[in-house]
């Protein structure tokens, strides 16, 4: 009986240590899963953003998802294998902390690098849409296709149809035709890098170039109805120029009133928001905000990892400086070393 009691007393600490290790594995995995929820959600939202996909591609988004899933599964697998082959290692918990710190540093560095690249491409896209829309990069090809489709849309046979896709002579040029359709549907806009401005009803005579001597009064009535962040760069320049000039004639106001907004290509809704302005708004407040959030999270992860390493190092130094009699030994009940 004494031998059985002694054996059960030896197995009980090992059983408790095994449970503790499983708790540590699950706790670390849960922390990594929570940390990676926001980046995965942001990448998933950008997957459905037609503007970001066309101008920046899916490469960065794929890397974010691979990095997040790899960190969660990598930590869980490494901790499981370490405890499996080091069942009786009394320092396994400390090793697990080091494994956690290594994966956290890798995740933080990955977030910083990927977010920096995303932020750079998003800024370049935003500048292209706002300052050089229709004159550089892919915006020029998109504008040329839109002008071609707009002329087709204004023909009598096509105006009566609900979408330009049903019009005779419609030839979609991919991927820009799909981009125009997705942007028009997603952001409820019309036109791309054009000089069309909103007005009421009537046939459209095409884009008109406005000058600084046009009416500021008409400008306030027509253009100010559209939110500033959704207006194209050319429209904002015209608005500022018109506000700075108070001298206008009735002839100029009558000419300005004849300008009509662009027809929507893939519906008959004829939205008044410019698609280039809506695209710039999406880049600024979706892609750039997601990149900045990811960068900030990566920096915080690195700071936490460095802080944890410093605390561990200081604790080890303090432990070494204590007298041997004050150090708790594994298996002791009094907290002091027992001398025989």
Write a concise synopsis of the structure shown.
With 340 residues, this protein is mainly alpha-helical. It has twelve helices and no strands. Helix 1 packs antiparallel against helix 4.
Number of strands: 0
Q: How many DSSP helices?
A: 12
Major beta sheet summary: none
Gross geometry: elongated
Q: Order of SSEs, N→C?
A: HHHHHHHHHHHH
The secondary-structure class comes to mainly alpha
Question: Unreliable segments (pLDDT under 50, ≥5 consecutive)?
Answer: 6-15, 196-234, 246-259, 329-340
The whole-number mean of residue pLDDT values reads: 75
Whole-number total of structural domains: 2
* N- to C-terminal distance: 27 Å
Percentage of residues in strands? under 5%
Helix content: 55-70%
- Estimated radius of gyration: 32 Å
What does this structure look like?
With 340 residues, the chain is an all-alpha fold. The chain has two domains: 149 residues, no CATH class; 143 residues, no CATH class. The chain has twelve helices and no strands. The two termini are 27 Å apart.
Itemize the secondary structure elements and their pairings.
Layout: H1 2-35, H2 37-47, H3 50-56, H4 59-85, H5 92-130, H6 137-153, H7 156-159, H8 176-187, H9 216-222, H10 233-243, H11 250-257, H12 275-321
């Amino acid at each position: 009986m004494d031998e059985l009691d002694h054996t059960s007393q030896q197995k009980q600490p090992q059983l408790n240590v095994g449970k503790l290790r499983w708790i540590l594995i699950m706790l670390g995995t849960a922390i990594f899963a929570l940390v990676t929820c926001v980046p995965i959600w942001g990448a998933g939202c950008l997957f459905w953003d037609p503007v970001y996909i066309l101008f920046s591609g899916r490469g960065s988004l794929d890397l974010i998802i691979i990095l997040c899933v790899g960190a969660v599964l990598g930590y869980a697998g490494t901790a499981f294998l370490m405890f499996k082959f080091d069942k009786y290692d009394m320092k396994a918990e400390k090793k697990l902390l080091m494994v956690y710190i290594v994966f956290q540093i890798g995740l933080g560095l990955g977030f910083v690098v990927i977010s920096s690249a995303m932020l750079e491409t998003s800024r370049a896209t935003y500048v292209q849409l706002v300052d050089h829309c229709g004159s550089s990069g892919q915006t020029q090809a998109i504008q040329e296709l839109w002008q071609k489709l707009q002329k087709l849309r204004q023909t009598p046979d096509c105006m009566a149809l609900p979408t330009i896709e049903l019009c005779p002579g419609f030839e979609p040029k991919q991927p820009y035709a799909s981009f125009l359709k997705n942007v028009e549907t997603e952001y409820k806009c019309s036109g791309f890098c054009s000089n069309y401005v909103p007005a009421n009803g009537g046939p459209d005579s095409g884009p008109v170039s406005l000058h600084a001597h046009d009416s500021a009064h008409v400008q306030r009535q027509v253009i100010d109805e559209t939110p500033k962040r959704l207006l194209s760069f050319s429209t904002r320049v015209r608005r500022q120029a018109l506000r700075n000039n108070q001298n206008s004639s009735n002839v100029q106001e009558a000419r300005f009133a004849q300008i009509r907004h662009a027809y929507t290509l893939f519906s008959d809704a004829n939205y008044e928001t410019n698609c280039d302005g809506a695209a710039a708004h999406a880049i600024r407040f979706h892609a750039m905000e997601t990149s900045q959030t990811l960068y900030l999270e990566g920096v915080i992860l690195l700071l936490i990892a460095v802080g944890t390493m410093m605390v561990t190092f200081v604790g080890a130094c303090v432990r070494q400086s204590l007298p041997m009699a004050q150090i708790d030994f594994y298996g002791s009940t009094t907290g002091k070393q027992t001398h025989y």
